[in-house]
Amino acid sequence: MQEIFLHSVINFKGEQINMKYDYLVVGAGLYGAVFAHEAKKTGKSVLVIDKRPNIAGNVYTEAVEGI
């Protein structure tokens, strides 16, 4: 039996919205990002959470002036 993660949010009108996901991925590092992408391709719903503002962990690009 597959577990479903239930997530509640409050929209801009102050109404509570319950959202169901097939998978909760904690960490959008390389593995988490790839897993979420592959699960989504098979029709699963995925919620990815991470403390960083970018996905794929340390694998990212950044525009640096002067380089």
From TrEMBL:
Pfam families: NAD_binding_8
Molecular function terms, GO-annotated: UDP-galactopyranose mutase activity
Keyword set, alphabetical order: Isomerase
EC number, UniProt record: 5.4.99.9
Domain of life of the native organism: Bacteria
The protein, known as: UDP-galactopyranose mutase
Protein's organism: Roseburia inulinivorans
Phylogenetic classification of the source organism: Bacteria, Bacillati, Bacillota, Clostridia, Lachnospirales
Gene assigned in the entry: glf_2
